[in-house]
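Researcher: Last one for today. Full complex below.
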Amino acid sequence: MSTSTETAPTSTRRGPKPAGQRVAEWADARVGLYKLGKSNLRKIFPDHWSFMLGEICLYSFTILILTGVYLTLFFHPSMNEVVYHGPYGPLQGVRMSDAYASTMHISFEVRGGLLIRQIHHWSALIFIAGMIVHMMRVFFTGAFRKPRELNWLFGWTLLFIGMFEGFTGYSLPDDLLSGTGVRFTEGAVLSTPVVGTYLSMFLFGGEFPGHNFVPIFYSVHILLFPGIMAGLVVAHLILVFYHKHTQFPGAGKTEKNVVGMPLLPIYTAKAGGFFFLVFGAIAAIAAIATINPIWTMGPYRPDQVSTGAQPDWYMGFSEGLIRVMPGWEINAWGHTLVLGVFVPLMVFPLVLAAIAVYPFIESWVTGDKREHHLLDRPRNRPVRTGFGVAWLALYFTLLIGGGNDLWATHFHLSIETITWSVRIGFFVVPAVAFWVTKRICLGLQRRDRDKVLHGRETGIIKRLPHGEFIEVHEPLGQEELHVLTAHDQYKPLEIGPETDENGVERKAGPVTRLRARLSRNFYGEHSQIPKPTVEEYDEITSGDGHH
Amino acid sequence: MKKLSARRRHPLAALVVLLFALAATGGLYAALSPAPKAQADESSQSTQITEGQKLFSVGCASCHGTHGQGSSDGPSLVGVGSAAVDFQVGTGRMPAQQAGPQIQKKPKQYSQDEIDQLAAYIASLGPGPIAPASNQYDPAGGDAAKGGELFRTNCSQCHNFVGKGGALTDGKYAPTLKGVEPKHIYEAMQTGPQNMPSFPDTTMPQQQKQDIIAYLHEVDTAQSKNPGGFTLGSFGPVPEGLFAYIFGLGTLIAIAAWVAARTTKAKKS
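Model: Here's the assembly. Have a good evening.
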């Protein structure tokens, strides 16, 4: 044998090692690549389209960074006044800020500039829409439960910062639409009691619009927020890796395993391919449809405004809050408290916080401290599902309020009617949505129970020899039965007996009582339909099928 | 056929039938509903004012009074001038179809000759804004950039950045300016129809009106360039958000479902 010194004794291959292996070994010796790979390359990810919603967010975030870097090469974050002499006719000789002029330059003169701008902006809308839908998937399937509460908060923080990342981004071109939004923000800042005027002076460096806000927003938009978000994304992914992915219930799937495809090669290939599909789809949309055509809006001037001045959709619910809030104000001791602006400003974070704290409220109410890796079917948790739908209903109601003028013109309605409907709907719609959703969930649970015990109605009517007509029911397969019956049904928390073993009255504080009452709401007899027991199933299926 | 028959009890069969039924009903309606008919009228050759008065007595006097003095159903027309008549009748707003928050634009009911006769009659009732000559409203004679600034200062708060229209109070609205003839835009500014403020030559000289018309011609006609692709109506972020959800996220979720469905698992059956 003429083995060279590099060849491992176990290798049967002759000659020098392939280049790939040499690189890998070089890396392994320095960063411990093999050990890392051994434990992670076979990591299993379950396959379901709804588990790829988070990927859509990750990829659109990546696209945002790539296109954003390109845009920074040409954008001037400056509010110096210039006169436009570019190729766009209807703005010839118009005075504008350097920020607006450079965005015009990107849109009309930089090669591929307009396409990149539109990819950037469409990705931003899709990124945040993806985060909302991803969050709703996690919410409705109960994937936020222990041990994933922290990751829920990471994700929520990404959404929250993402909204302001978007706001600072679309404000940069200093056009008439976004300038109106910045003016609105100034009004919101001013409405803050006591410190409002100081905050506004600090932000704008004097009277609005000043010369400050574009450079400030620029730093925040390209450095501060993306930095925080990139960190959170990494932390989010590390936790997904560490916790392993959740999975839907099904035959062979337990709290202790993960059924799916290994990271390498299958999942990597799929995820990598999906990135290009996402990039391609967004690029196609950006090539087809205009977004934020700043050239039609003109440069910002505080004395101009246009109708239809809405923020991007993710800020739409805050626009709705401000549009439907009555213009109340209190004047006292020479000061004005503008409730019409200040109340919406305070409700805005509360709307988002309501969904953020839900996992903690649920685990406190139900006393559930176990780990969960199997997902819930939304119908089996009617109260949670009802709450989620109520939140979405509130969000959508406020979106209607934010676009009340377009709803009015396109549906031939009076804008006041819409505003009043949203005012009432703000309180009524979530309650109705909660109740309706809960009833639907209970109905679906009953249907599941019925299907397990009696099978599926086939619609085939059979006439028996003695003349009776029956509908043929098709029994469900084992897999389907498993899905319908695998979930746990919880018992509500009990306060315990009124008196202890010595007959002395036990004290239950108001918090304990509240918790027991909420728990009854979650898991009491009005909130879930008992799933069929083994005995019930045996009794019914042991007969002749005629029941 | 056998395949179809075997699947008619499928849980989704009802949904499929419903979709077919909806598509069929909608399709038939679109195909068979009557198309609006255009009306043509001839005019006679007599003196403008007398002919106009005759037309007025037939078509307008029931609301505006026999001598244009107005009634409980319509305002006085003394002093509104020929420009107002040319705008109101020329855009089909008059004669009004029905009462409502606002009189709407519709196909015009009189020929241009008849409108000129009506205008001549109304102008004879009292002095008012005169319908412009074509060199006053020709878009070629205006500066689109100046017009854009004027439009954003005076018009866009109701009519949107590029004249797509917007909502006013109590069901009233500022209509879209797309497809409105330059002459009618000029007359609207001159006379201030319905909720619109008027911009007489004393506050907005003729050249500025022409600049605005030039701007609208540049950004809001079929010839306007849309470098970004489809404009989604130019209504700003609301349709953009809707588009991002339906076509953006919708496409991506469809792709995700496609990717997730294609996997290496062993075939069932």
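DSSP finds twelve helices and two strands in chain B. Residues 29 and 41 of chain B are 30 Å apart (CA to CA).
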